[in-house]
Structures are given as C-alpha cells and as structure tokens.
Amino acid sequence: MSDTGKSRNKDNKGKRLYLHTFGCQMNKADSLRLSEIFQAEGYSFTKKLEEADVIIYNTCSVRHHAENKAMSYVGRLKSIKDEKPEVVICVVGCMAQRLKGEIIRRLPLVDYVIGPSSMFDLPDLIKKEKSGVFADSSDKRKEFPDVEFSSINIDSPFSGYVPIMKGCNNFCAYCIVPYVRGREEYRTRKDIINECKVLAGRGIKEVMLLGQTVNSHPHFKDILKETAAISGIERVRFVTSYPGDMDKETVDIVAGITELCDNFHIPVQSGSDRILKEMGRKYSTSHFNDIALYIRKKLPLASISTDFIVGFPGEKEEDFKKTLELVKKIEFDQSFTFKYSPREGTRSEKLEDDVPREIKKERLAELNKLCGKMSLKRNMLFEGEALEVFAEDKNTGRSSNYKIVHWYGPAAKMGEKVKIKINKALAHSLKGKRIT
Ligand code: 5AD
Ligand code: SF4
Fold first, then answer.
1. Which stretches in the chain have pLDDT values below 70?
2. Global confidence as pTM
3. What Å distances lie between residue 213 and 170, 178, 228, CA to CA?
4. Topology of the domain covering 12-134
C-alpha cells in the first residue's frame, strides 16, 4: 500500500490489513480501492496472515474452481482465528454475493460477507462492530466510490485502474456475472475523466479503463479520446471488449491516437456459430473475424487476446474444429482457455453437461497447444524490433501492446520508459537488450 498521507483515523493506528484477491481486473481494482479506504482509516498493509487485524478475501464466482479455492483459503484461517479470536475475517466480492449466509454456515469463523456493491462500507461496519451478511443486490447507496480512493496498481505504481461501468446485461447462458454484479450501470464521462485527472496528478502515466463489457458504455469512444488527451497520461488501456459491441470505428480511433494502446482483449468463446447461439452471445464468427482481421490490417503489430470455453453443452467435434480454425485464422497473441463449468442459476445450468470430462480435457490441451504456437508466432514478429517499454520491475516491463518484455543491460526505475531491442521471442514474453 502506498503512503498517500490520507490517514484520518488515529484509533486504527498500528492495525494491519491482509488482503488477497481472486479473479478479474475488476476485482483487482476493487481491492486496490478497498486498500486505499482502509489506509485512510489508519490501517497499514501486511503480507503475513498472523500479523493481520483484518483479513479480507476478495472472491470470484466465474468458475466453480475459483470458488473452491477461495473457500479452502478461508478455511485454512482456523488456527489463526483460534489463536487470535479478535481477528476480523471478511469474504467480499462475487462469491460473497452469490453464496451469502451459506459462507458463514460453512465457515463459521467468517465475520463479514459483503457483496461487490457494499464492500466499500466495510471499514464503517467494522467500526460499528456490525458483523454479518451484506449482499443485498438492490443496495445502490454507493454507485461508484469517491474518486479520492483511486485504484492505483500497487505492483506498478505508475498505473491505475478506472472502472467506467459495472455489471453486465448480456446474460450469456453460462455466465454468473450478471447475477453477482447486477445490471449495467455507467459512470458519467465527467466522473471518469475527473478520476483520470486525479490519477495523472498523482503521477500515474497509464490508466486501464475497466468494465465487464467496457465498450458497451454509451460514451465509450469519447471516453477513449478524452482520457488519451489528459496531460500526463501516456497510455490508455481498456478491458474487456464485448465482440458484439466492437466496431471498426473503435479500431480507427485506437490507430489514430498514440496514447491509446494497440491491445484488444475480445473474448470470442467459440469458433462455432451454433455454439455461440447456444451460449447467447450476440454476434457471429463472421462479425468477429471482420473486426479481428481489420485490426490486423490497420494495426499489424497490435495484440489481440481472447477467451475460450471448451466443452459447452452440445459442443461436437465439428464445433471444436471450428474453434481451432478460428485460432489459425486470427493468430491470437494470447488466449485464456477454460473448461465449461456449470454455474447455479444460469441458463446453461439447465442444459445437460454432456461433453465428458476426458473430452473437455483433451480439447483444452489441443487448444492450448495451438494457441501457444500462435502466441509464439506473433511474438516472433518482434524479433529485431525496438519496443518502448514501461518498467514494472528492474528488468521487466510491458510494451504498449501488453507484451511482457525482459531485458538485459541497465536496470530501470519503476515506471521509467525504456527502449528494448528484441532479440528473442517466447510464447508468453519477449527478451531483448536495453538501448535507451
Ligand atoms: N465456465 C467456464 N468458463 C467460464 N467463463 C465464464 N463463465 C464460465 C463458465 N461457466 C470464462 C469466459 C469468460 C472468462 C472470464 O471466463 O471465457 O470470458
Ligand atoms: Fe458474462 Fe457474457 Fe456479460 Fe461477459 S458479456 S460478463 S460472459 S454475461
């Protein structure tokens, strides 16, 4: 946690917070904001569970595995709670919203269960010693928290997360997000730009505009342009783009403004139109190909990353083959691949999970192998090229198209801009020599 000198509560002086985050960038942004709020309350940060006065797990519900993992981490706190009963244990975020009181029934050592919309009230609740379950989705008191508590990335303090919307209206058949994060709510342009300016004033050079479907914000294109124009902001990223709302104009805007990073995360999920329809995804593979190939034409070095689900109910070998074909056609720079996992209350939970486990496993392995080859192929384009990199560590950083770059030669300070001549491509990173 950075020292921003905002501490205003002396009662909590010396108190320590342990915070662990599962899941997506939205969760990371929420966690960073939460740590800032706790810091303002006088807390400092610890990486040691035994030292903590407050322990928070910010959880993810998107796959069954993510929930199991969070439950098992929290379960392991038993000896700590036995030894120090006054330690406050909190489960926040999507799993808290989904399972509510069930979490305390299964793990009675938990004091607070708080959904995404109320989590920023946590310090107040602790002060009032009002433990319990706070996961009412109709609770909209804090639409978006104060900009005073921005989400500066602790791992790279020159970079900040800025949520521009929350929730999702798409209700894809497999997805729990609309149930735990609610319907779409858009932050105003003024509020977003204001927060970006506050961040720039604090020395932030890179902002990541966030939303489950970030490009569904009605003013998305203007937000991109206005954020890029803020003095001090050198890089603007945006995740996650919903393919159905992606258009060529957005690509043109990115191509025309240097500060807008040439990196697109557009989860396609499947290369079969039949499966996309079953999934309730509101686009076709031909629309997706159109956009992706346009990016390749307009910005040949831009990175395109995506997500895939294998083994969705009814997925036949021929559907899966179409996914492989799509990968070969687009040559994704990075792919995140998942085995289908039925989520309670979603539409696809009612469909028979009919792709056998073994087949899901095989398809996942085959897809991963192909995607790895494609990532390497794309990365090889950079051999011999000089890339501008923002250092995230002494000898590691990211290029504008979000490639991880390692270099030999002089170390850099965090946030420093360096130029690296790439001489070796790996599937998931680039290596080179520092030249400036
Ligand atoms: N099963 C498997 N993967 C899922 N995802 C979302 N829901 C599920 C599910 N029920 C994946 C999608 C999404 C990513 C964040 O997680 O690929 O884009
Ligand atoms: Fe889930 Fe679909 Fe919304 Fe993405 S677009 S968060 S997959 S419902």
1. 1-10, 137-156
2. 0.93
3. 9, 11, 20
4. Rossmann fold (3.40.50)
